[in-house]
């Protein structure tokens, strides 16, 4: 029993001497831990005469309980002291800016942003969005668009062909979004009013050409659609897209097999803050009667217009991006410079660009 009293006062001294939480924990392990001095007392139980065991056991347990509650009390004391110490020394500067999280650091690619802008504008004019596959048939990409086999216009499109299939048909990567016109006219009756954005492919690569790029096709077919509608629509689009009240437009005679007449459209570069130049932005025209016929529509009854715009080119013009190849280089420095904040969603009401 004297041993116990000595042990107890030694333990109490250690507890009050423990200067911090790790030191206190060491005392806990050394006393009431599995192999600690207090716990080990229990192993003596077996060597005691039977009539002393109960009293000894109770005494040791009571000691263990006292040690344990002293440890807890000292622990609380040390924790409070540690907290007061931190409160006294640490300062939170609540005037610092909020740390940037992933939503704020992420960027929307200019192609995606400009696509959303264009869709928003045409949606407000009543156009639906149509889609077609990247791998197309020769028939949809060329023949039904009034570009028969051996037509010289095929050579202007540096086409990526696949191996011919057993039936001789040669699938290809679509060279333009115009086959979506065909798909739409085959699938639905006029009135038709769609835009069809998507990737297109041509075997071509330099500062202004990449083997994959993006176009947006437009198609309007009805019974009395005429060129005035085409010009008005494109002008409304150009004003909304470049966010200017007036835009100078020039329609130049051109040639596409799927339109008659065909035009290329330039805008006055003052729309992008560079007066004195013309910038080509798209090709368009009245849908060729052969194309209508190829899709089962009688040209005597239906007519309409179509246009094709380079989406990447629109992005380059509007946002002053010089090199097309960088669009597809996946360089995060480029993206954080030219990209758009995630929550900067283009709307006509809220503003096409912020
Ligand atoms: N498909 C043409 C191209 O890739 C662009 C084009 C021109 C589309 C005139 C049209 C159009 O719908 O009417 O160069």
SS elements, strand count: 11
Could you name the ranges where pLDDT drops below 50 across 5 or more consecutive residues? none
Give the helix level as a range of percent: 40-55%
Kindly report the name of the CATH homologous superfamily of the largest domain. Answer: Bira Bifunctional Protein, Domain 2
Cα separation of the termini: 84 Å
C-alpha Rg, in Å? 39 Å
How many strands, which pairing sense, and closed or not: the largest β-sheet? 7 strands, mixed
Total domain count: 2
Mean pLDDT: 91
> What's the CATH architecture name of the largest domain?
2-Layer Sandwich
Adjacency order of strands in the biggest sheet = 2-5-6-10-9-8-7
Highest-level CATH class of the largest domain: Alpha Beta
Number of helices: 13
Order of helices and strands: HHHHHEHEEHHEHEEHEEEHEHHE
SSE class: alpha+beta
CATH topology type of the largest domain: BirA Bifunctional Protein, domain 2
Relative strand content: 15-25%
Bound molecules: 3,4-dihydroxyphenylalanine
Shape summary:
elongated
Layout of strands and helices, then pairs:
Layout: H1 2-17, H2 21-31, H3 37-41, H4 50-89, H5 102-105, E1 107-108, H6 110-124, E2 128-129, E3 135-136, H7 138-141, H8 153-156, E4 172-173, H9 179-187, E5 192-201, E6 212-222, H10 227-242, E7 249-254, E8 259-268, E9 278-287, H11 289-294, E10 303-310, H12 311-319, H13 332-338, E11 340-341
Parallel strand pairs: 2-5
Antiparallel strand pairs: 1-11, 3-4, 5-6, 6-10, 7-8, 8-9, 9-10
Helix pairs in contact: 1-4, 2-4, 6-12
The structure holds 3,4-dihydroxyphenylalanine.
Describe this structure in words.
The protein has 354 residues and is α+β, with helices and mostly antiparallel strands. The protein has two domains: 2-89; 108-341, 2-Layer Sandwich (BirA Bifunctional Protein, domain 2). The chain is 41% helix and 18% strand. The chain contains 13 helices and eleven strands. It has helices at 2-17, 21-31, 37-41, 50-89, 102-105, 110-124, 138-141, 153-156, 179-187, 227-242, 289-294, 311-319, 332-338, and strands spanning 107-108, 128-129, 135-136, 172-173, 192-201, 212-222, 249-254, 259-268, 278-287, 303-310, 340-341. Helix 1 packs parallel to helix 4, helix 2 (21-31) packs antiparallel against helix 4 and helix 6 (110-124) crosses helix 12 (311-319).
């Amino acid at each position: 029993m004297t041993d116990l009293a000595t042990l107890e006062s030694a333990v109490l001294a250690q507890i009050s001497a423990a200067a911090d939480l790790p030191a206190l924990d060491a005392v806990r392990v050394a006393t009431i831990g599995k192999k600690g001095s207090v716990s080990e007392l229990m192993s003596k139980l077996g060597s005691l005469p039977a009539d002393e065991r109960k009293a000894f056991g109770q005494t040791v347990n009571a000691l263990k309980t006292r040690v344990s509650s002293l440890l807890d009390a000292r622990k609380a004391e040390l924790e409070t002291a540690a907290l007061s110490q931190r409160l006294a020394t640490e300062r939170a500067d609540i005037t610092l800016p909020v740390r940037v999280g992933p939503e704020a650091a992420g960027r929307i690619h200019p192609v995606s942003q400009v696509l959303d802008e264009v869709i928003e504008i045409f949606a407000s004019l009543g156009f639906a969005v149509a889609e077609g596959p990247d791998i197309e048939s020769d028939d949809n990409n060329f023949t039904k668009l009034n570009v028969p086999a051996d037509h010289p216009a095929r050579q202007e499109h540096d086409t990526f062909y696949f191996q011919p299939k057993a039936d001789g048909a040669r699938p290809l990567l679509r060279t333009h979004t115009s086959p979506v016109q065909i798909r739409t006219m085959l699938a639905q009756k006029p009135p038709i009013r769609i835009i069809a954005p998507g990737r297109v492919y041509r075997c071509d690569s330099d500062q202004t050409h990449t083997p994959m790029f993006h176009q947006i096709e437009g198609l309007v077919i009805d019974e009395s659609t005429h060129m005035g509608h085409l010009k008005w629509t494109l002008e409304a689009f150009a004003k909304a897209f470049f966010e200017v009240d007036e835009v100078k437009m020039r329609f130049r005679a051109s040639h596409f097999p799927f339109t008659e007449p065909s035009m290329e459209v330039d805008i006055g570069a003052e729309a992008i803050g560079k007066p004195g130049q013309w910038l080509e932005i798209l090709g368009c025209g009245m849908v060729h009667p052969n194309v209508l016929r190829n899709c089962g529509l009688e040209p005597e009854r239906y007519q309409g217009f179509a246009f094709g715009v380079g989406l990447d080119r629109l992005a380059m013009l509007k946002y002053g991006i010089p090199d097309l190849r960088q669009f597809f280089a996946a360089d995060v420095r480029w993206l954080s410079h030219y990209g758009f904040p995630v929550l900067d969603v283009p709307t006509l009401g809220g503003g096409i660009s912020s």
